[in-house]
Amino acid sequence: MTSRRRFLRDASLAVMGAAAVERTSLAALPDAATRNDASTARPLAPPNGRPYRPVVTLNGWTLPWRMRNGVKEFHLVAEPVVREIAPGMKANLWGYNGQSPGPTIEVVEGDRVRLYVTNRLPEATSVHWHGQRLPNGMDGVAGLNQRAIAPGRTYVYEFEAKRPGTFMYHPHADEMMQMAMGLMGFWVTHPKDPSFMPVERDYVFLINAYAIDPGSRTPRVNEMTDFNLWTWNSRAFPGIDPLVARQGERVRIRIGNLTMTNHPIHLHGHEFKVTGTDGGWIPPAAQWPEVTTDVAVGQMRAIEFDATEPGDWAFHCHKSHHTMNPMGHDVPTMLGVNQREIATKIARIIPDYMAMGETGASMNGMEMPLPENTLPMMTGTGPHGPIEMGGMFTTLKVRHDLPRDSYRDPGWYRAPRGTVASPWQGSTSALPSTHRQPASAGKTGVKS
Amino acid sequence: MTNTLFPARMSPRQTAAAPPFASPHGQAGRRAPLAIAALAALVLSGCATFSDDGGFAPVAEAAQKRLGQPAVWARDDATAQALAKERDDLLTRPLDLDTAIRLTLLNHRGLQATYAELGIAEASLVQAGRLPNPRFSFQRVQGGGDTGIERTWGIDFVRVLTMPLASRIEARRFAQVQAQVTQAVVEQATQTRRAWIEAVAAQQRVQILEQTTLATQAASELADGMARAGNFSAMRRTQENLVYADTAARLARAREQATSTREQLARQMGLWGQQLSFTLPARLPDLPRKRPAWPGAEAQAIRERADVRAARAALDATTSDLGLTRVTRFVNVLDAAYRNNSETGRPSEHGYEISLEIPLFDWGSTRVAGAEARYRQSVDRLADTAVAARADARTRRAQTLAAWDIAEHYRTTILPMRQRVSDEWLLRYNGMLASVFDLLGDAREQRDAVLGYIDATAGYWLADAAFRESLGGGEPEGVEASATAAPTNPHQHGGGA
């Protein structure tokens, strides 16, 4: 892995001052904390208010708040940001408080929540609190429930976090542009009773997708289907940190989908249960066992499992193009085409030309120069060679010796002797004779 | 009466009195008119003999000065052989532009034919400066029992009388022929210059098209392979095949162009037979590195252009005619007129006419008025020609500079950007973001950009040729040393490229 998770970020480092916000006009507002780092911040233990077990935002962070007269006050600043999609590529996006997606908001069921939203974008915006029960005027659909927040203005939303569950926030003003630019964030309302469905690790992330042409930095906001960057929290593998768990721990992963297509999210090595949807927690009797759950557009899913199996388990979207980084969708299949003679001719006019694709698209770990600010289509190297994955892919690392509450990357799994697939060393006569043609098959015309 | 048309009939004694001419009969008259003797002496002391070079020196000098190349008139077999040898030597190397012009000046038979005009004109000049041969006539008349024998010695009196005028006119005519031959040399050099640029550019286009035909051929063969492997439909395959077929047609057309422009060049250099195997440099000369200035173009045009020089010569002639007319208005019985009959679509006729008149009624005032009007007319004609020449030079200069700007734009902007696009395509190919067909398609686009650059460069050199012509054939002067980074004459770059 080229990127190692850095959990040791102190809150004082991660949460920087509100130097960028006008002090005079915003003097009465809570600090607009901001963060520039794309690594996973360690969970923010609640300093006040009702207790809960905080979530971990994959390659993200949780927004600090202040308590004022019993109200939790948050300050979101919608603004242009530069997000590192993966090492070697940065994107011009729109986000909140320095990052896209914005910081996760964590509250507890029954909390009174006041959210200040400052618009530092070049156009009007609003915030829709996706899935919340709230007064109609706080629902954030510009024009319908409120006036849009003009650039430079600060609006305040206030409501009670009535029901526990998994939520999102995103704009409901020029949303085609603003969502395509990455303006979104996660929201978790913890149950009032901390003993309700407890887990040791609670990961959250948003699924999002961008169309950023190779060599450019800003998404094509008008794209509808032909996205080339499939990301979790605006990160693509190998830029996505691993999810780690101590063997035997109960793990929850909450996933929200703000792309324009569905994503079958697949976990290796464990079967999980879908325990939560947009509507709330699913009664145990109704929970589906799965190894893949489809998260449809605009949906949220919480899955839970006991991390019983040690190892480095793949965790990814099962649409194979979604585990690729930018690739040419109009590139013809070269499979089975001998290019050797033609390559000599082509090299006379394109000297650096090298024939590719005759036996497949794999580069076998070979790296070639790419357009600037572009990720390789398949990259990442594991302990046994190239992983040849990109996009919506990471690993679940289960270790028996991982300390509780540690989110440190334990490195590659050291498989016990004899538990890794290996080349067959015996004679071929010992192989099962599956190719042998049954005597009766001759009549059916099957050739050996 | 003799049948001599001019009334120059004299008695034998009178005739014999013409002393400077040796009389075959040894009759030396002692009473020869002094006027005639003086006139004859005057004429004989004039240019009544042929020059060594046939009057070619000014032409050769002008060619050397304007074209930087010598012009040689093959007036005898030895010279012709020497020229042929020099020609064959020159043909062994790739022909740069200077060599092509040199070959033209040495070898073009049309030009040699034009040089011969000098010989013809000089013969007329010398003839005009020589006294006519005396004529002897013998008459025997018989009738009425008498036999009358009349012997007459005669000389063409009018010709003698008008000899200074005729000489002057022929001298002027000779100078004019020299100017015309010089102009013909310049024009022929310009023709060669154009033909050379066209031929080299055409040859360069062929090279580029041959190279990119390879690309389309590769794409076509690859498409065949794709179809065999089941990756391409018949339509997609045929589309790529079609591109190749189309490129082949373009290449054939370009080859035909290269052949005909090369033929045109050979013709301008007067080559034939085995001489046609000459080779041309691979590329046109590079552009001058810095944008030329040529601030003195108008002055150069006024100084060098043939039409301006002709108009000035006409003015000078008119001026001297006016002076003559003034001096001789009362006694002059001569009226000399230069004849220049020109009619659209026909070659102009040159000559002169001399007539005698006896001043009984008109004492010359009309002639003076006419001469003065002609003088003013010549002044205006010169001014008009000069204005047109200046405008022509300015226009050609502007066109040449614009052509330089365009070609330089191709060189410094379009081609590098085109290359950058190709580099980016390759990067995309590396990342499997683009296919080999994208690369090959881009190679075709790059070909078009390079063809555009060749056109632009040829456009510059053609404009340069036209500009030189508008300046009278010489290299434009007045390029400041600091303004041109080219170490030498840009034409010299053509050879090794």
TrEMBL record, chain A:
Pfam families: Cu-oxidase_2 (PF07731), Cu-oxidase_3 (PF07732). Residues 422-437 have a biased composition (Polar residues). It is found in: Periplasm. GO terms for molecular function: copper ion binding; oxidoreductase activity. Residues 413-448 are annotated as: Disordered. Keywords: Copper, Metal-binding, Oxidoreductase. The keyword Oxidoreductase applies. CDD domains: CuRO_1_2dMco_1 (cd13860), CuRO_D2_2dMcoN_like (cd04202). The keyword Metal-binding applies. InterPro entries: Cu-oxidase-like_N (IPR011707), Cu-oxidase_C (IPR011706), Cu-oxidase_fam (IPR045087), Cupredoxin (IPR008972), TAT_signal (IPR006311). Residues 85-192, 217-331 form the Plastocyanin-like domain. One of its GO terms (cellular component) is periplasmic space. This is Copper oxidase. It comes from Pandoraea faecigallinarum.
